[in-house]
Design a protein that fits this description.
About 75% of the residues lie in helices and about 0% in strands. It is an all-alpha fold. The chain has one domain. The chain is globular, with a radius of gyration of 19 Å.
Length: about 300
């Protein structure tokens, strides 16, 4: 494993460890904030942080490149997080964390279709997909969670697809050769622009006095500076080094982190149905990526 590849894996791991707990922070903030308010505050804060860290301008982009930045801002910043936050108003944080973990399946499919650089999808990929969907079904219709309306879970699934679109677009952006912080900042800018119409549709209130509550302040700082400013840069860096499909494999860690954190921090109910659903979802992801991960190990000289 080269030094560059190791950095890519480390960046992806750090990103997922932080993102796995963001559902909890969002759930806490939803007690007194609208989904669009959380979204706007965290990414505005993230944009300002990146501007302070790297005040240079991104120059020399073409119209075609700008269109990719626009699409990435729409999919990965505005729509993905808006749907995710709305989903959290309907269902548990652990549900959303597990469902989002199907993104690697979508990433593999879209990469195969649009990037033309991945190997042929084999039987184990589809077997894993079916197993994971069974797990999601158990989680979504878990009567013990008292969440019988699947709207939130369907929104989370759509969000996972949008994140896949963002990952593919990020891979395209990495080929432009620009600084990762500058490209991430450009994506944030367009994402915030797309949020502005939603501010009027979803009863946005500025009301910064709510951040006098230290719990709210710390959680929005975590989302804005950590999960947005830092993690988008590290994720985009990982995609640039490892590729969209290989980086997306790390998403299978999200449900483990989220379910554990939701039980320990906000005391959400954990039932045997949730446990089986989580195991099936993770098993499906591992089955689907088994051949890919084995080739990675062999290519790095770790075979016996």
């Amino acid at each position: 494993m080269t030094n560059s590849t190791a950095k890519g894996h480390l960046a992806a791991l750090i990103t997922i460890l932080i993102w796995g707990t963001t559902f909890i922070s969002t759930k806490v903030l939803l007690a007194d904030f609208q989904p669009i308010e959380i979204l706007f505050f965290r990414f505005l804060m993230g944009l300002l942080a990146l501007l302070i860290v790297c005040p240079h301008r991104l120059k020399g982009t073409t119209i075609k490149q700008e269109s990719v930045f626009v699409a990435a801002g729409l999919c990965g910043v505005c729509l993905y997080y808006l749907l995710e936050n709305i989903a959290l108003t309907y269902t548990m944080a652990s549900n959303v964390g597990v469902i989002i973990s199907v993104a690697p399946f979508f990433t593999a499919i879209l990469s195969h279709v649009f990037l033309k650089q991945d190997e042929k999808l084999r039987a184990n990929f589809f077997i894993g997909f079916i197993v994971a969907m069974l797990g999601i079904g158990l989680i979504s219709f878990n009567a013990a969670s008292l969440q019988l309306n699947p709207i939130g879970d369907l929104l989370a699934l759509l969000a996972a697809f949008l994140w896949t679109c963002y990952s593919i677009l990020t891979r395209k952006i990495s080929s432009f050769g620009y600084n990762t912080i500058l490209t991430t900042r450009r994506v944030f800018f367009y994402g915030i622009l797309f949020m502005i119409p939603a501010l009027f549709l979803f009863d946005f209130k500025l009301d910064l006095s709510r951040f006098a509550n230290m719990t709210y302040l710390l959680n929005i700082l975590f989302l804005g500076l950590g999960a947005s400013a830092l993690c988008f840069v590290t994720w985009n860096f990982a995609v640039k080094i490892l590729g969209a499909v290989k980086t997306s494999i790390y998403i299978y860690l999200v449900p483990v982190i989220t379910v554990a954190a939701s039980v320990l921090i906000i005391h959400e109910l954990f039932t045997w149905i949730t446990g089986i659903g989580t195991v099936l979802t993770l098993a499906g992801l591992l089955i689907s990526e088994k051949k890919h991960m084995r080739k990675e190990v062999e290519s790095n000289g770790f075979t016996q």
